[in-house]
Specification:
The structure is a single chain. The protein is about 95% helix and about 0% strand. By secondary structure, it is mainly alpha-helical. The longest helix is centred in the middle third of the chain and has 55 residues. The termini are far apart.
Amino acid sequence: MGAWLANTWTATWPNLLANVLWVPVVWVHHRVMKRHITQLHAEHQQHIQTLIDRTEKP
C-alpha cells in the first residue's frame, strides 16, 4: 500500500503543482491582456473618429 501511494504521489504532484502555479498565472495574463486590448481598441476607435471628423470638415 505504501509503495502504491508513493508511486501515485510521484505521478500526481507535478500535475498538481502545474495547476497551482499555471492556472493563476494564466488567469492574470488573460485579465491583463483583456484590459490592454480593450484600451487599445478604445484608443483606435477614438483615433479613427478623429480622422473621420477631419475629413468631413472643409
